[in-house]
Amino acid sequence: MEDWIKIYSFDSQYQAEMSKDILEQNDVKAVIINAKDSLFLLGEYELYVHSSDEKKAISIINEFKGLTKVDSFIMRGPIERLKDELEANDITSVIKVCRNPRYVLDNYELYVANEDVQKVVPFLTGEKLQGWSLAKTCTKTTQTRFRIEILNHSHIPSIVIKKRDAKFMKTELNIYVKDEDLDAASKILRELNGWTKVHTEDTRERAELIEKQLGKESIKAIIEHQPGGYAVYVEGPKTEAAKTTISQQKSWKLLETFTDSLEANYAAGLLENSGIEAVTIYRDDLALMVDIDLYVEEFQLDKATEILKHIATTENE
Kind of pairing, strands 290-297 and 45-50? Predict the structure, then answer.
């Protein structure tokens, strides 16, 4: 790994992954090397960054030294309520706001002291989240956000907890509401009053492409898995605009699949700067990692392929 420098070593994979996540949210690309001996399980998880990012990366990591991120969301309310629950159980926590110029919304991150992580786990699984019940499970942040907004409109407070698998990858987002609000919340999220079904797709990936297309027109879309497929809902006043947008549906083709979000966003940005509309769809592969599919319109596929090939060739020279 020429021009890459090890900046930290960790005893646990969880801490290494969380530090990598913090760096990448601050536009610093990082790589984890598992330096454990496969026979004796000795060694550490080593975190590397490019030499040009060394000072910035060390500064960022030092800011979070001694802390572990246990949850995060793009709305402050759900994170503050979880913080309150932890504080009520004598677990001190702190909220840090992550602002990234590449994203419109801030990310609110909840941290606890490293030694308190194991105490927090039963709250993250819902086991000790007393007085709260699971109302809905989502797989995407934006889909969770829209549902939280619906609950807020009905004055129903909520907590959002990101569930992670054994490899510490996000697998789903769980929405919890107060026990006494569960029936009302479930009904609201099921019926989606004020929202209109405008389209149905056979696969989630195709429905998410519709969601992205609508998002570019500032139209919020909720995807619901139903017996007939994946239904797309929009807010009532946006119904006609959504139908018009969908009627002009583009023929998307998969260009490339990435496992690094920075690389995927970088490639999408290059294509956009070249006049090629690009869409990224995140897929959680529990056996491996998060895959990011990069789509372009069918008639732009050859041109987009050549652009990415040229960039790859240039970077390897």
Answer: unpaired
Token pair belonging to 309:
């090939």
Selection from 84, 77, 219 nearest residue 155 by Cα? 77
Q: With contact defined as beta carbons under 8 Å apart, do 84 and 132 qualify?
A: no
Edge-to-edge strand ranges of the sheet holding 30-34: 4-10, 45-50, 30-34
Alpha carbons 274 and 57: distance in angstroms, whole number = 31
Q: Which residues contact residue 270 at a Cβ distance below 8 angstroms, ignoring those fewer than 6 apart? A: 307, 308, 311
Location of structure tokens 């491996």: 288
CB-side exposure of 61: number of CA atoms within 13 Å? 25
Prediction pTM value: 0.74
Band of residue 20 on the pLDDT scale cut at 50, 70, 90: confident
Residue 174 burial (CB count, 10 A): 19
Cα separation, 292 vs 180, whole angstroms: 39
Question: What mean pLDDT value characterizes the chain?
Answer: 86
pLDDT in tens, 189-235: 999 999 999 999 999 888 999 999 999 899 999 999 999 899 999 99
Q: Which band of pLDDT confidence, cut at 50, 70 and 90, is reported for residue 38?
A: very low
Question: Is a pLDDT exceeding 80 seen at residue 287?
Answer: no
User: How far apart (Å, rounded) are the C-alpha atoms in residues 84 and 54?
Assistant: 36
Mean per-residue pLDDT for 119-137? 94
Answer yes or no: are the C-beta atoms of 158 and 188 closer than 8 Å. Answer: no
Contacts of 132 (CB under 8 A, 6+ apart): 85, 126, 159, 176, 177, 178, 179
- At residue 201, what is the residue type? E
Task: Identify which of 195, 260, 315 has the alpha carbon closest to the alpha carbon of residue 31.
Answer: 260
